[in-house]
Design brief:
Chain B: Residues 728-841 form the Clathrin adaptor alpha/beta/gamma-adaptin appendage Ig-like subdomain domain. Chain B: Keywords: Cell membrane, Coated pit, Endocytosis, Membrane, Protein transport, Transport. Chain B: GO terms for molecular function: clathrin adaptor activity. The structure holds two protein chains of two kinds. By secondary structure, chain A is an alpha+beta fold. Helix content of chain A is 45%, strand content 26%. Chain A is built from five helices and seven strands. Chain A has helices spanning 24-39, 76-93, 99-104, 106-116, 127-139, and strands at 3-8, 13-18, 48-51, 54-61, 64-71, 117-118, 121-122. In chain A, the strands form two sheets. Chain A has a five-stranded antiparallel β-sheet, with helices on both faces. A two-stranded antiparallel sheet of chain A has the order 6-7. By secondary structure, chain B is an alpha+beta fold. Chain B contains 42 helices and 17 strands. The radius of gyration of chain B is 35 Å and the shape is globular. Classes of the chains: A alpha+beta, B alpha+beta.
Chain lengths: 141, 960
């Protein structure tokens, strides 16, 4: 994984996680490009878009686009379902997650991401295990 | 925490009320000022408040505002014993990475403490921070420590997971700092771990390591196979937490299958059998009824299936599995999910290149053509085009090309050029009947003329010229195509060229009489751009030769003010020269000068090269090519199989040539005479005049060089054939004819690598009589001798009539040099003694190695070489038309790298390279600034050595 972006339809970024070195201007450019590429696609389109030398795997949940940028040789469906797995965890953790949960609890969202994805790789896929760990951490707060 | 959230809310909602952007910024600034004063205040903040304000800063940053303070407070939080404070501290560091060296030391210190804390939560935070930042400083500090944590017996599972991926990140950013060691074998055994999360993380690490060190991780193959086998044979509930919508551990399965793609099929028959069973099970499961209707179920299942198919294709050894994979993908081609249709097309593309499954793929042609017509998503249609291209062979080429042409009429602009290239390649490659080829290309120009690049129409001309069976047809067809009231300029170019060469073949028909041909072409003249008009003028002068009866008509046109006084220098010059030529030259001379073009040497299609460039190497599916790549992969050989293609035709074993230099080949650098530049080479002559006006195709030994009509009976002894023109031609290329008179032709082929080189000299006896006492000698002057070491072997003193002998010169560049060695040849021919000398084109630039660098690096080095003695500049008049593409090809041919997007002025050319000599290496930078208006160039060379700058500048100035 090169980066993960969660954006709303207006293009506001709700989460950006970078696994490659980019400078700030480059990040801003990528964010805008991804938004432009993804939002024009409709339900009849695939969930994959070629993007520079990579590809974006994305899925839309209500007003939010969850986008993962991966290498062209990576497994599309595996990352597509990784997004869904991640969303189900968020949903469970925040009890029906909504956009504002991601905004206000940004530090928790980062924790969830790090539990499930690390160094650009899938770290843990078991929802039970991830939630158990998150609850344990929450009890320390 | 609640309070933090509340205050965050206050910022946000405050902002919501703020009517304008300014109000928002004002509010943020107020908040920042408040936090700043808290941090600066006399009263030391407690951990809780510190955390609260750092968290606010982070929030403001994430809203998109710059934050330039708070780093120190964040670092302080790292040493807190409370999880929340530590977590916010680490998050701040991860998100706002700052390479402030003072802080890095403090951060590393805190991480070190946490790693040693034995508290799994703190260890996790520290490891995640390293994995997120991944800086070199962190690699230096922790690359030794993390493997220990990873393999220690008492490490918690979740910490192991983090440690594995943390190590992976450090290995990616600084592989040199991660030492291989005892831990590697223990990491491989993590594939057996009880905890599937640990296996998931470890598999990623092992895959990356195995790609770089396949030998060391070879044992992972059998472990991965048995792990995979246990997963795919498990019942859907066995793996509990790791079952996702009834699919057992889909992500782990995918990762294991990817790991196996780092290796060839297992040698051990037991392991191999077990793997085949796994793959069969996966294929079988695809046929079972789904356990759930949810898309998550089918996606997870198919993720594994596609990865298994990738592995089957990678192994390319089990025909049975390949055909089954193909059938499965065939089913997906008609699936209602767009995702699956897309992926099936993509995956089938690679299957098409396997000899085992090529035929099976072909059976789906109708479905794929249908996809081209009906898919709504352009990216799916694109894949369909790719697949058609990949499955094309002689049996279906006509159908596929026709469908692609059909599609081209409505295709999206974004993919038109690529389709044009593909059609052009397929039409050429599978043409049995060249009339079909000509029709196809003309259709291409008609349908998508704007997307037909120069390479495509150059190529059709090459082919027509080389095949005399199609020339009449081509002339007739272009003539007809030109009748269209509005035709594309590219058609005018092709038409002009072909009629100029072969118009006579259709002139017998009164409907296409010479005058009609001429009037037809000339009716387009005024609508065309300058280069096309220049080409048409050349066609006209060729007509003067082909059709003497319309000579006066053409002369009238050339004589008109719009030609003779044309504002464009090139057009004016052509008009003047051609008019003069047609007036004074006798028919014989005209016939010689305007001779039909000689055949072009056969070479790789430049269109293919262009497509490869467009798609990146490896994506152009050419059966043989993939085979070649794959076999070299398996042998683990690092040398690209296609280097030094020219070496194949020389008698010496190519391995020897490869062995000349010890350094690995830079396979990204184009060989000095890539097909693209050669093409430009050929056409650089014909662009300024129809070819035989210029010396013919001088890089082809075999071509009958009729154009050289010079009559030289006996050379005065001992004059060096200066032939400077020819000598300079060799500065930017390595092969071609060096010298030719009525008796003898001398051809060269040479290769250079670093400070070594080898030159093959071919002496061809053009007469039918023997040459006796044939003695070529290579002479270095006293000045040259210490710098250039040349070794030759004597050749057979007798050269039979019509025969060719060859001589090898081994070259070593000891230090930089100015002069060129002299090749002296003495022999007896029919009783007379012949003695001649030519300069041998071994020039300093042959020992260039191109160097790629960024704009920043280039100008930094440029400034470093600012000593006036290091710079040599030359301002000179252009001797050839100023064409950017030709100039680029020449700079690359010269040996330096051509750096794109370095010079702020895109019209300028910038190059860099290193001259290798035995004693030293000299870095060279060059910059060429064309001034189109004045038809002048300014060339600047900067190297660390004055003499080198001087010599390179001299050599290169002669080229433009």
């Amino acid at each position: 994984i090169r980066f993960i972006l969660i954006q709303n339809r207006a293009g506001k970024t709700r989460l950006a996680k970078w696994y490659m070195q980019f400078d700030d201007d480059e990040k801003q450019k990528l964010i805008e490009e991804v938004h432009a590429v993804v939002t024009v696609r409709d339900a009849k389109h695939t969930n994959f878009v070629e993007f520079r030398n990579f590809k974006i795997i994305y899925r839309r949940y209500a007003g939010l686009y969850f986008c993962i940028c991966v290498d062209v040789t990576d497994n599309n469906l595996a990352y597509l379902e990784a997004i869904h797995n991640f969303v189900e965890v968020l949903n469970e953790y925040f009890h029906n997650v909504c956009e504002l949960d991601l905004v206000f609890n940004f530090y928790k969202v980062y924790t969830v991401v790090d539990e499930m994805f690390l160094a650009g790789e899938i770290r843990e896929t078991s929802q039970t295990k991830v939630l158990k760990q998150l609850l344990m951490l929450q009890s320390l707060e | 925490m609640i309070q933090t959230e509340a205050s965050c809310c206050r910022i946000i909602f405050g902002m919501g009320k703020g009517k304008s952007k300014e109000a928002e910024i004002k509010r943020i600034n107020k908040e920042l000022a408040n936090i700043r004063s808290k941090f600066k205040g006399d009263k030391a903040l407690d951990g809780y408040s510190k955390k609260k304000y750092v968290c606010k800063l982070l929030f403001i940053f994430l809203l998109g505002h710059d934050i330039d303070f708070g780093h120190m407070e964040a670092v302080n939080l790292l040493s807190s014993n409370r999880y929340t404070e530590k977590q916010i501290g680490y998050l701040f560091i991860s998100v706002l990475v700052n390479s402030n060296s003072e802080l890095i030391r403090l951060i590393n210190n805190a991480i070190k403490n946490d790693l040693a804390s034995r508290n799994p939560t703190f260890m996790g935070l520290a490891l995640h921070c390293i994995a997120n930042v991944g800086s070199r400083e962190m690699a230096e500090a922790f690359a030794g420590e993390i493997p220990k944590i990873l393999v220690a017996g008492d490490t918690m599972d979740s910490v192991k997971q983090s440690a594995a991926l943390c190590l992976l990140r450090l290995y990616r950013t600084s592989p040199d700092l991660v030492p291989m060691g005892d831990w590697t074998s223990r990491v491989v055994h993590l594939l057996n771990d009880q905890h599937l999360g640990v296996v998931t993380a470890a598999t990623s690490l092992i895959t990356t390591l195995a790609q770089k060190n396949p030998e060391e991780f070879k044992t992972s193959v059998s472990l991965a196979v048995s792990r995979l086998s246990r997963i795919v044979t498990s019942a859907s509930t066995d793996l509990q937490d790791y079952t996702y919508y009834f699919v057992p551990a889909p992500w782990l399965s995918v990762k294991l299958l990817r790991l196996l793609q780092c290796y060839p099929p297992p040698e051990d028959p037991a392991v191999r059998g077990r793997l085949t069973e796994c793959l069969e099970t996966i294929l079988n499961k695809a046929q079972e009824p789904p356990k759930s209707k949810k898309v998550q179920h089918s996606n997870a299942k198919n993720a594994v299936l596609f990865e298994a198919i990738s592995l089957i294709i990678h192994h390319d050894s089990e025909p049975n599995l390949l055909v089954r994979a193909c059938n499965q993908l065939g089913q997906f081609l008609q699936h209602r999910e767009t995702n699956l249709r897309y992926l099936a097309l993509e995956s089938m593309c690679t299957l098409a290149s396997s000899e085992f499954s090529h035929e099976a793929v072909k059976t789906h042609i109708e479905t794929v053509i249908n996809a081209l017509k009906t898919e709504r998503d352009v990216s799916v249609r694109q894949r369909a085009v790719d697949l058609l291209y990949a499955m094309c062979d002689r049996s279906n080429a006509q159908q596929i090309v026709a469908e692609m042409l059909n599609y081209l009429e409505t295709a999206d602009y974004s993919i038109r050029e690529e389709i044009v290239l593909k059609v052009a390649i397929l039409a050429e490659k599978y043409a049995v009947d060249y009339t079909w080829y000509v029709d196809t290309i003309l259709n291409l120009i008609r349908i998508a003329g704007d997307y037909v690049s120069e390479e495509v129409w150059y190529r059709v001309i090459q082919i027509v010229i080389n095949r005399d069976d199609v020339q009449g047809y081509a002339a007739k067809t272009v003539f007809e195509a030109l009748q269209a009231p509005a035709c594309h300029e590219n058609l005018v170019k092709v038409g002009g060229y072909i009629l100029g060469e072969f118009g006579n073949l259709i002139a017998g028909d009164p409907r296409s009489s010479p005058l009609i041909q001429f009037n037809l072409l000339h009716s387009k003249f005024h609508l065309c751009s300058v280069p096309t008009r220049a080409l048409l003028l050349s066609t006209y002068i060729k007509f003067v030769n082909l059709f003497p009866e319309i000579k006066t008509t053409i002369q009238d046109v050339l004589r008109s003010d719009s030609q003779l006084k044309n504002a464009d220098v090139e057009l004016q010059q052509r008009a003047v020269e051609y008019l003069r030529l047609s007036t004074i030259a006798s028919t014989d001379i005209l016939a010689t000068v305007l001779e039909e073009m000689p055949p072009f040497p056969e070479r790789e299609s430049s269109i293919l090269a262009k497509l490869k460039k467009k798609k990146g190497p490896g994506t152009v599916t050419d059966l043989e090519e993939i085979k070649k790549e794959r076999s070299s992969d398996m042998n683990g050989s690092a040398e690209p199989a296609s280097v030094n293609a020219s070496a194949v035709s020389t008698p010496s074993p190519s391995a020897d040539l490869l062995g000349l230099g010890a350094a690995p080949l830079t396979n990204s650098a184009p060989p000095p005479s890539s097909s693209g530049s050669l093409l430009v080479d050929v056409f650089s002559d014909s662009a300024s005049a129809v070819a035989p006006l210029a010396p013919g195709s001088d890089d082809n030994f075999a071509s009958p060089d009729l154009a050289s009509s010079e009559v030289v009976s006996e050379e005065p002894a001992d004059t060096v054939h200066d032939a400077d023109e020819l000598f300079h031609k060799f500065v930017c290329k390595n092969n071609g004819v060096l010298f030719e008179n009525q008796l003898l032709q001398i051809g060269l082929k040479s290769e250079f690598r670093q400070n070594l080189g080898r030159m093959f000299i071919f002496y061809g006896n053009k007469t039918s009589t023997q040459f006796l006492n044939f003695t070529p000698t290579v002479i270095c002057s006293d000045d040259l001798q210490p710098s250039l070491n040349l070794q030759t072997k004597p050749v057979d003193p007798t050269v039979d009539g019509g025969a060719q002998v060859q001589q090898v010169v081994n070259i070593e560049c000891v230090s930089d040099f100015m002069e060129a060695p002299i090749l002296n040849i003495q022999f007896r021919y029919g009783g007379t003694f012949q003695n001649l000398s030519v300069k041998l084109p071994i020039t300093l630039n042959k020992f260039f190695q191109p160097t790629e660098m960024s704009s920043q690096d280039f100008f930094q080095r440029w400034k470093q070489l600012s000593n006036p003695k290091q710079e040599v500049q030359n301002i000179f008049k252009a001797k050839h038309p100023m064409d950017a593409e030709i100039t680029k090809a020449k700079i690359i041919g010269f040996g330096s790298a051509l750096l794109e997007e370095v010079d702020p002025n895109p019209a300028n050319f910038v190059g860099a390279g290193i001259i290798h000599t035995k004693t030293t290496q000299i870095g060279c930078l060059l910059r060429l600034e064309p001034n189109l208006q004045a038809q002048m160039y300014r060339l600047t060379l900067r190297t660390s050595k004055e003499a080198v700058s001087q010599r390179l500048c001299e050599l290169l100035s002669e080229q433009f």
